[in-house]
Give the backbone structure.
Amino acid sequence: AIKEAGEINDFAHNKSNIDYTKFVGGIYSSEWFWAKILHILRTNEDIRKDAYSWVEHTDWIPALLTGNTHPEKLKRFRCAAGHKGMWNEEFNGLPPNDFFKSIDPLLDGISDRIGSDTVTAEKPVGKISEEWASKLGLSPNVIIGGAAFDCHFGAVGGGISAYDMVKVIGTSTCDIVVAPKDEFGDKLISGICGQVDGSVIPDMIGLEAGQSAFGDAYAWFKNIILDPAVKLINNSSILSESVKNNLIKEFSNSLIPLLTSEAQKLPVESSIIALDWINGRRTPDANQELTAGFMGLNISTTAYQMFKAVIDATAFGARSIQDRFTDHGVEIKRIIAIGGVSRKSPLVMQTLSDVLNREIIVCASDQACALGSCMFAAVAAGIYPSVEDASSAMSSGYDITYKPIPENVKIYKELYAKYKTFGTFIESQTGGN
């Protein structure tokens, strides 16, 4: 939905009296609600003919479990509506129908069939229906709570408080910050994935950013190397099928650990710079048309050096997000990491600490997003009076700390400057908006 997102941005910035993208960083993304809807309506005649309304998955599950699935009556939750749907109290809800209809008549009437009210995720939305209580073997008295995106629950599961940044690090990343409303004031943070009152913790501004590829960048590099080997093994006439399968499995499981161990032996200084935009750029300044690249390769370059450059690139992308917050007057107090990469790769995490020049603490739970959802459920069920109370009582704490190494910090500062220069050039040549 890249084309559709571009049309939404063009209309909001140049043809509308109000810029309805201003609370989603000023750039509407192809990953989000209205761009996807418009793309599907244009390309799928059957759905276009039959669809009455559209529902976020986060909104649908509580509706389904409570038996309240009428599109105009089901609960719409603040997190999805604000970060992806352009909902904001300043607009009295969603942008008006005329805004959407002017972009494309196919959107006419949809916003009127969604409703303007939203609910924060700690609110109970009803009891489980008899049908689902029976299917799941649960008591009919089970309370169904509200919903939010995984990384927003994960931030609470990770113990977020004012001006912390929780980095949810997996295949991609989400970076979540919360700020008190009275202190945050009327700031507008450009190029992030939104700033929404109550999207993370009620009565605080929730700020979201992130990278389109993090662990996925490592997996891409692994597959570049692995694919030819797999084809050669499968085409071998001297290996049995069982040996082929076992060899491919061993290669696949061993390749990232091997690349990591060899990259760890390399000096921090490097002549190779890579970009992390292998799946476009989410933030800062969403642009899904961007491509990645390497700079500084020569005849002696090894796969291990290239892999290290990919790790560095993902850390540099994280640094650009941190800089965007601090450049807009949002000083980050603590950095908390959750997610698979944060617990599995000391090399990645130490690199991240060195590049950010910040201490990083890692949540002890390896399921912080699920833990956060349990905290919200506990509030909805009345076990705790607030999200903060639930978080304090149920927190797993932190069991790993990474601290920046001063000599590495100095080197990475220079490499980061080269990353930004390289990025500016690539953006000017491939996919600049």
Remarks:
- The chain has a mean pLDDT of 96.
- The CA atoms of residues 265 and 356 lie 21 Å apart.
